[in-house]
Amino acid sequence: MKTRFIIAMFCLSGMASPALASDASLMNAIDALSHGWAKVNYQTPKKARAAAFQPLISQANSLLETYPDAPEAMIMDALILSSTAAVEGGVDALIKVRQARELLLHAEKINPQALDGAVYTCMGSLYAKVPGWPISFGDKAKARKYLKKALKIDPGSIDANYFYADFLADQGEYAQAISHLHLVLQTPPRTGREDADSGRRDEATKLLAKINMAHKQEIAAH
């Protein structure tokens, strides 16, 4: 039986501009990969996504070979591995999320502020969604800690707010979840990131509707 879990990830919460990066070529490659990710994740039928992510995995691995000490490349590789795992399932998916976590831990040691703290959004998403022990490393307390760190670095992040809202909803903290979802929906799209932000806001809209429909009484009580 396949092990299934969901990581609807795009954890690059605010791409750094090339002018602020140590290497413009690196950031241009990150930019291209992020647009490729958005196309697969939001415009490709779910059954076809695992195969569609494979070329992006190869490109991300090549980027990391070119820039082995760049936390931005590590984060991008982790993102694509995690997203592939989410639609792939099984033992291979568990291997990929462990690889993603190692990349993120390494990136954190080098520069936790890289890509506006995206490492913490990614880590929080992983710990929130992967199975816990003995299957894998999922841990709700760590998920909360990492997602709060992401929001501390970038309080207006569309992605960090979405994933924290998703986590809060999963924990039954619906009123707080709704507050963060409203932030997602009110935040203007980022220039050059309209594809990803549009997809993320669609997810936020659906999650908000789901919470309002299923937990109307609990929300009213608050």
Automatic annotation (TrEMBL):
Family matches, as Pfam families: TPR_19 (PF14559)
InterPro entries: TPR-like_helical_dom_sf
Record-linked SUPFAM superfamilies: TPR-like
Database matches in Gene3D superfamilies: Tetratricopeptide repeat domain
Keywords from the UniProt entry: Signal
First and last residue of the signal peptide: 1-21
Protein name, as recorded: Uncharacterized protein
Organism: Sulfuriferula multivorans
